[in-house]
Amino acid sequence: RCVQETGINAEYMGMAYIMKIVLFLSALNIALCYVHFEIDPIDMAKTKLKVNEGIFKNLKDHFKTNELTTFNQRYWESMDFFNPASPRAILYICGEGPGRFPGEKTLPLVAAEELKTALFSLEHRFYGVSQPAKDWSLKNLKLLTHEQGLADLAYFIESMNKKINETHHVTPKWVVIGGSYAGAMSAWFRYKYPHLAVGSISSSGVVKAIADFQDYEKQIIIDLEKCVGEPKIWAADLLRKYQRYAESQIMGNEKQRKEFLALFNATDMDLQDFAYYFADLPVFYIQRGRRATLCPVLEKLNKGTLPIPSQIKIFAEDAASKGFTPQGYKFVLLKNITTDPTKNSRQWYYQVCTSFGWFQTPYKKNLIRWEGMNLTYWYRYCHSVYDELLSPDELKTNMDMGGFDIADFTSNTYFTQGGDDGWKWAGLRKNEGANKDIEVTEIDCDDCAHCVDLRAAADSDPEILKQTRENEKKAMNRWFNNQLTYHILIII
Fold first, then answer.
1. CA atoms of 177 and 107, how far apart (whole Å)
2. Contact criterion met (CB below 8 Å) for 274 and 249
3. What is the pTM of this model?
4. pLDDT surpassing 50 at residue 174
């Protein structure tokens, strides 16, 4: 599920109740429901690998002169496959949530075993137990930037090189791997620190900051058109119908609201919390690679004669049978500044509101969600959460990190995108330049969605997915075997 915490000061909207209604009006998805990718973790109780969890003393502020204050950053390491005769290391970059060590059959662990590398995993600052500050006040969150995160990775690799050299008298070559936001971090790290990593795997890497991110909803509509039937837009139209009905009930009288919430056994839920749950229903299937199971559910409902409330209830019950329930959406307020290793929303939305955007605004050419969820709305949202006028500086982020032009300035990077993934529109989908050191694969198959190549492999995986993983491992082996490659831009 999406990890989110809601809490909005509705001073701009007039009253809190109106804000609750506004949040409800996206039955297909909601702009602040960011999918936090979590790789399948290692089972410490069952694995035969020796995996050590440790604490690394990283710098609190890498860009402040003479500032040597440190914080405890969690990491994991396994040297089981390391070969000092051909020293190699893979760093799996953890993203916007508690860190994990990659599990069995995931690409990082499989590659480490086959390519005989050490395997490390580093938790991102301000997530999990890796907290540089005593609380998540806005003053402290100013140290939460992708630039600081990249510098954390660099300092960690330099320190691990010293540690390995002291023990084995060799210095390994490194490949970095990440998915989603961490996929962008992986690509950006190779771009910014090419002397420390010989290559990068960027799975569903969102390398371009986009505030007005309409393309996400566009992809949801495209995915729904894969549901068999005529006209092709029938599934999207059905969800529009559900949204219109839900809107009418929430904006109706108290009796209507209670009866509607009773369909989900959610009469005790705050409307904001319920809004996030209901908005996420279809995305639960599509974003998580389960579109093929969504289509039959919608098809049965569309062909039936049940009234709309009953259809919506059946839809929700099917999701609940797969582990998706309203109870998981009773979150604490985003204004809560108390650190908690299990939570990620206040920190992540700070990064979104200051650097990236990715606000899933209505797709104007084929509207599903409420048209009022525009950029003005989301800027006001950021302000209400952090009590400061914040807006993503997408121009600076893209100039600093390369945006879609990153392929012109870097090398030895393999970008992958899931064919069904709405986030691919913020990632590199093709290499249109002459840079042959960049590889791009769109994994276009049923239910191939966010970071699909990093998920644990299965015999039933589509051939294109199996081949992509093989190609990624071949690329990593090639990078390890070659000399370091740099791209130098000279401006006259």
1. 9
2. no
3. 0.84
4. yes
